[in-house]
Amino acid sequence: MTDLAHPDRLDKVARLRAAGIDPYPARGVEAEPLAELVRDLGSPQSPGPRVGARVKAAGRLLSLRDFGKLIFAPLVDKGGRIQLGFQRDVLTDWWPNRKLLDGGDLVGVEGELGFTQKGEPTLWVHEVHILAKSVAPPPEKWHGLVDKELRYRRRYVDLWSSPGIADVFVARSRIVSKIRRDLEARGFLEVETPVLQPIAGGAAAKPFVTHHNALGLDMYLRIAPELYLKRLIVGGLEKVFEFARNFRNEGLSLRHNPEFTMLEVYWAQADYRHQIQLTEELIEAAAREANGSTHVRFRDREYDLRAPFRRVSYMELFEERNGCAFRDEAAVRAIAKRLGIREEHGYPKLANDVFEATCEDALEGVVFVVGYPIEISPLAKADPENPGVAERFELFVGGMEVANGFSELNDPAEQARRFEEQIATKDPEAPGEVDVDYVQALEYGMPPTAGVGIGIDRLVMVLTGQDSIRDVLLFPTLRPLHADTHGETQADGESGAAGSKHAPEA
RNA sequence: GGGUGCAUAGCUCAGUCGGUAGAGCAACUGGCUUUUAACCAGUAGGUCCUAGGUUCGAGUCCUAGUGCACUCACCA
């Protein structure tokens, strides 16, 4: 038992047992969803079909308003809420036990649907069963859980005590489900590829390192599933996708969590133009699924996600904003100097930084940027008409990158050369060694293929209007609490259990 | 990693010029059969984040630390 458990409530557990009532019974009750009960009850002005009906319900009591011989208590379940009315004259036998109920308790009830004098839909209770006694005090009834950290740490409280929170995660589930169904309908196969990888490839990012004891081998949590999914294209699976949890050992922000979900789709015989179209169609459908419309409100701005989305050319935008070509090194360096941008990993990266600094505002709407410099696209195929430009696109919504896709490089020699080049930059985010097995896979021959990665967390942010990635993650990454000091134990009751499950920080 | 801010009862928060701890909610006791942030009366509840320092005296001022929020950088 932790310090979170309230002595008065623990005492009530004992009193329930003494009264012959199991505070944690083994069986639940068959209950109807509260939202349906409320819907079918209607209102006093337009009564529904189930006024006076005898029903069973289960849920969590939020609070109790005790009038002596009458108690009102709101009951919530997943997505619904109704008021319970307990009356002494109806619950004669149970009445002496009423003081053993608290806000937060889980109960099952049987009773009759009706209204109060004020017209509030009410389930007039005839039978009460406690389903689980809550010994931790619920959040303050008016303000609720306002401490953001506590909301993330105790999502299990946030979900039932903060209105609208559960809706975001229901929407997330529907978005993912819709995308999955749409891809399956188009003949794509959902697959699973390794999270534990001997070489962290497929993106530029710092990986988490772990160790496999039996193999005596350091391994990485994947930063991207890309190289494995393309192996499957070599294997002839033709159209594959994975909702891939990726792990990147980098900073946290409104848009970044160390683990995040990326949908990656690979499509043989397609090129980047097919993927652009697929991307916008999937997103439009997901928007309709989540909101019933293509209009979304994100960070105080309205966006219309109806396909097709606008396209702009990377190189043209660069020239328009900077008055010089991407590869006009002298001119670009001068601009970089004026903007105070320092070179860190070679010229192409510097020029891309200039792009990001000068073209940012052009990415404010819903827009595909198309045709990235080949130098910063090591896994993408060059445009046959324009060898310096990769057949690559990124999708931005409100300035935030949501998707990245391209025609996949399938020339094994060229891929090996680009891997070597990447490693030579000594960029800490470049892979440490060439993924020889991947190059070998290409040597067997990969058909012309296009791939895209869609940031699912960020897409959900846009579609549900959440500013922070943490608000679309049920359990965002947090520093674990330690039970070392008394102060922290007091501040958080579950710290002892939680702390013991976490490995020490590396 | 840098900057700014915050940390007081279970929760949300006050706390004046440095003078020894307050409210509402929750809990407990009593009253109340139509409330909905119910109401009325009472009781109990404090390592003022931690460790130092200044001072006759620190919740308050100073230093360091810890945690969190916001923000910048990196990243998708």
SSE layout and pairings?
Elements: H1 7-18, H2 34-41, E1 54-61, E2 65-66, E3 70-77, E4 80-87, E5 106-115, E6 121-132, H3 148-153, H4 155-161, H5 165-185, E7 189-190, E8 196-197, E9 209-212, E10 217-221, H6 226-234, E11 239-247, E12 259-268, H7 272-291, E13 295-298, E14 301-304, E15 310-313, H8 314-322, H9 329-339, H10 347-359, E16 366-370, E17 382-383, E18 386-390, E19 392-397, E20 400-407, H11 412-424, H12 436-444, E21 449-455, H13 456-464, H14 486-491, H15 495-501
Parallel strand pairs: 4-6, 7-11, 15-16
Antiparallel strand pairs: 1-3, 1-5, 2-3, 3-4, 5-6, 8-10, 9-10, 11-12, 12-21, 13-14, 16-19, 17-18, 19-20, 20-21
Helix pairs in contact: 5-7, 5-13, 6-12, 9-10, 11-12
The protein binds one RNA strand of 76 nucleotides through helix 1, strand 2, strand 3, strand 4 and strand 20.
Compose a concise summary of this entry:
This protein is α+β, with helices and mostly antiparallel strands and 506 residues long.
What would your notes on this structure say?
The chain contains 15 helices and 21 strands. It has about 500 residues and is of the alpha+beta class. The chain has two domains: about 5-140, Beta Barrel (OB fold (Dihydrolipoamide Acetyltransferase, E2P)); about 165-325 and about 365-505, BirA Bifunctional Protein, domain 2. The strands form five sheets. The chain has an eight-stranded mixed sheet with strand order 7-11-12-21-20-19-16-15, sandwiched between helices. It has a five-stranded mixed β-barrel with strand order 1-3-4-6-5. It has a three-stranded antiparallel sheet with strand order 8-10-9, with no helix packed on it. Helix 5 (about 165-185) crosses helix 7 and helix 5 (about 165-185) crosses helix 13. The longest helix is centred in the middle third of the chain and has 21 residues, at about 165-185. It is elongated and about 90 Å long. The structure holds one RNA strand of 76 nucleotides.
